[in-house]
Design brief:
By secondary structure, the chain is mainly beta. The chain has 7 helices and 60 strands. The strands form 9 sheets. Strands 1-2-5-23-26-29-33-36-39-42-45-48-51-56 form a 14-stranded parallel beta sheet, with helices on one face. Strands 3-6-24-27-30-34-37-40-43-46-49-52-57-58 form a 14-stranded parallel beta sheet, with helices on one face. The chain is globular, with a radius of gyration of 29 Å. The two termini are about 55 Å apart. About 0% of the residues have low confidence.
Length: about 750
């Protein structure tokens, strides 16, 4: 090698070494990680290490804050060892605490509970306790509730919510007795003999399904008039307290809870709010012990940034992670005296309230992974006001008093900051055990979210919601009206309510993707709900590739429904089968494309007639002009069943309803077939072709391979394929099973 080449090589090596040195200077050194261990067997005087853990989450948080004061850039983790952590106050993670991970130790079960055993000793109640049913004599125990403890609405035995003593169900009177106050949201009337069977209503509550059966209320009894049968409540019901105007409620529509006269079964309890005594009939017949716990909290943990409610800018907490934890045994949040106007649509939940065990309020880039939210009187998780890029992944929500997951932004206005979140691969089931109108997953005024690959079942009401419907009532009496940001609304709407397209910039539940979810056994109790529901939610919501099946409820309306004030929604590639009620309902301009609707039932498996059976495709009122209805497969197995419902008249009773007709839609390339009635589809086609639609649609067997076993794949010679129908693969519907999957 020449000297010149040697010199070049030396220079190159020197330059590379210098460049590497500069690069190392520019790369920040990894920050010091801090870990704080906690164990129920620990001690808060310990150092918080693996060998010397703290005893409480509060102490670990204090250590976290002390550490971060000297090292603000540290990466911190709180590790909870196996056991139950009974919280007495809500743990709040704030701006200075993040980023931080709160995790269960590997292969261990860390349980955050909002309940504790009563400190007082249980005593056997007097065998002939006044007002107690004779069958309960000698079985009921009593314990004192400390004065400093909050009164509660639920109690637990292990992993079970114990039932509050409740009378048999009744139906409220439809007309007030002569000379009495009219029935309204405060006045409810029962047969006089019902009231006379209860000596004292102090602390009692009424569980009631009011006039509109898509909601129920739990309301305190304020006063009783035994002469007229009046029950009066200071807290207004959502609607007038008449009997429901429709719905199948065979066990009644009114119950009275928390009275000794109703304590007549093992497992039931009553709280004497005046004397602060808890009465309980054990299920096992033995003296109660520490297995009976009462909640002291509804909200166990909150992640909260700086909320500038009236202004434009919030400051979120970033980088808080919860992993592998169990949240349980929280209380039900009570309905409030001034709740009118603060309830989210139809009072299905409340605006900006601590109703869930885990709550984010002003947060960004946080995660909930592999957690469980079980056996509680509350909801599971809430994302309130400013919440962005929050991921709720691979978690279970079960046996909850309220909703599973709620995403709730600001009210109508221009502050669109609840968005871009993910709810994925979760199992949501047996929720709404106390509040029967609760949804499995709900996005209210929250958009650009992905609600995907979840398994939602056994819900008393709707499975998945995307809504933002708000009554623009300046008096604050309409639903959601007090959440309205009037200064912002008035800048957008110069006069009145405006058209939907003018209001749409204020409706932030837009561009959600609800996809690949497995839904069944929804609508177990309430009326008029659906598996998936979209209403007043803004544009470009997509409901695709969901499998909706096996819903035997007589009260369900449709499997998928675009309700009032809803346009520009896409419903595509969904499979609906073995459900009661109706197929797809839409109001407004929406797209229904490439769906399979197979064997919708008019009666339940036990022979109960379904309340809603207008058809597979239903347009109650409109206008629906410009909607797209293409390449759908509709198959009935019932002779005489309705295929289509459209409103051609402009009124219904006292209501004026705009017509909604398929002829105003772009409807074509659909396939219709009835396995029990030849000509069913052709009759529809003949009726619609005179209006210039359905010109290429056909009546024909689609040739599914095995629909009875959920195989809706098509034979190669299926006529649906020739119409351009795209096969739907449901093998990936529901939670994905890949370990460590991170959507």
């Amino acid at each position: 090698m020449s000297q010149r080449h040697q010199f070049v090589m030396v220079m190159v090596t020197t330059l590379l070494t210098f460049a590497l040195f500069l690069a190392l200077l520019l790369v920040p050194l990894p920050v010091r990680a801090a870990e704080f261990y906690v164990s129920p067997d620990g001690n808060d005087a310990n150092a918080g290490t693996f060998l010397e853990p703290f005893a409480s989450l509060e102490r670990a948080q204090a250590a976290l804050r002390a550490f971060r004061a000297s090292d603000p850039h540290s990466i911190c983790r709180i590790i909870l060892r196996d056991g139950i952590y009974r919280l007495e106050k809500t743990i709040v993670f704030q701006l200075g605490d993040a980023p931080v991970e709160i995790v269960a130790a590997p292969h261990e079960t860390a349980i955050l509970s909002g309940a504790s055993p009563l400190p007082s000793e249980w005593q056997l109640a007097p065998p002939d306790l006044p007002r107690l049913p004779e069958k309960a004599w000698g079985h009921v125990w009593v314990a004192d509730v400390p004065k400093e403890w909050p009164l509660f609405r639920t109690i637990f035995e292990g992993d079970t919510i114990l039932p509050l003593a409740r009378t048999a169900g009744f139906q409220q009177l439809s007309k007030a007795p002569e000379g009495s106050s009219a029935i309204d949201q405060h006045h409810l009337y029962l047969p006089v003999e019902v009231l006379n069977g209860i000596a004292d209503f102090t602390g009692a509550e009424i569980v009631v399904v009011p006039r509109n059966p898509w909601v129920m209320n739990i309301l305190p009894v304020t006063k009783v008039d035994r002469r007229s049968g009046l029950i009066f409540t200071d807290v207004p019901a959502t609607y007038s307290l008449e009997p429901p105007r429709f719905g199948n409620f065979p066990n009644g529509t009114v119950w009275i809870e928390n009275v000794l006269e109703a304590l007549d079964e093992p497992g039931e309890w009553v709280l004497d709010v005046s004397a602060r005594k808890l009465y309980f009939w054990p299920r096992n017949g033995k003296k109660p012990g520490h297995e009976i716990v009462v909640p002291r909290l509804t909200e166990l943990v909150r992640v909260e940034g700086t909320i500038d409610y009236d202004g434009p800018t919030d400051i979120p907490v970033r980088g808080v992670v919860f992993r592998g934890l169990t949240f349980t045994q929280a209380d039900r949040w009570p309905w409030e005296l001034n709740k009118t106007g603060w309830g989210l649509q139809h009072d299905w939940e409340m605006f900006d309230r601590p109703t869930a065990m885990l709550r984010f309020r002003g947060a960004e880039s946080c995660r909930v992974e592999d957690c469980r939210f079980l056996n509680s009187g509350s909801a599971g998780v809430r994302l309130d006001l400013y919440c962005q890029k929050i991921a709720i992944l691979r978690s279970e929500f079960a046996y909850l008093g309220g909703a599973g997951i709620l995403l709730a932004g600001y009210g109508m206005g221009t502050k669109d900051v609840n968005r871009d979140n993910i709810v994925s691969d979760c199992h949501v089931h047996h929720i709404g055990r106390l509040l029967w109108h609760s949804a499995g997953i709900w996005a209210w005024q929250s958009g650009h979210n992905r609600i995907e690959h979840n398994h939602v079942h056994h819900t008393p009401y709707t499975g998945i919601l995307a809504t933002g419907r708000t009554v623009l009532d300046r008096q604050g009496n309409g639903e959601c009206s007090r959440t309205v940001r009037w200064a912002e609304v008035d800048r957008v709407l110069k006069a009145g309510r405006g058209t939907w397209y003018e209001r749409e910039p204020l409706m932030h539940a837009r561009e959600n993707i609800i996809a690949y979810n497995d839904l069944h056994h929804c609508m177990e109790v309430m009326g008029d709900g659906n598996a998936i529901y979209v209403s007043g939610a803004g544009k470009n919501n997509i409901v695709r590739n969901n499998f909706i099946h096996d819903i035997p409820s007589p009260n369900i309306n449709a499997s998928i429904r675009c309700d009032d004030d809803q346009h520009l929604t896409v419903i595509e590639n969904n499979i609906i089968t073995r459900v009661c009620g109706e197929g797809i309902i839409w109001k407004g301009t929406n797209t229904i494309r490439n769906n399979i609707l197979f064997d919708i039932r008019d009666v339940t498996p036990d022979g109960t007639p379904c309340l809603h059976k207008r058809g597979y495709l239903v347009m109650p009122y409109g206008p629906v002009d410009g909607s797209v209805v293409e390449r759908n497969i509709v198959v009935s197995c019932t002779p005489g069943q309705a295929l289509l419902f459209e409103r051609t008249t402009a009124s219904k009773g006292q209501r004026t309803l705009l017509p909604a007709m398929l002829r105003t839609c772009k409807a074509d390339y659909n396939l219709y077939f009835n396995t029990a009635e030849p000509g069913w589809g052709q009759k529809h086609l003949d009726a619609q072709r005179q209006f210039g639609i359905e010109l290429h649609s056909i009546e024909s067997d689609p040739k599914f391979r095995d629909p009875a076993n959920d195989d809706f794949s098509l034979a190669p010679d299926s006529p649906a394929l020739k119409l351009g129908f795209q096969p739907i693969d449901i093998s990936t519907v529901g939670p994905r099973k890949v370990k460590g999957n991170k959507p």
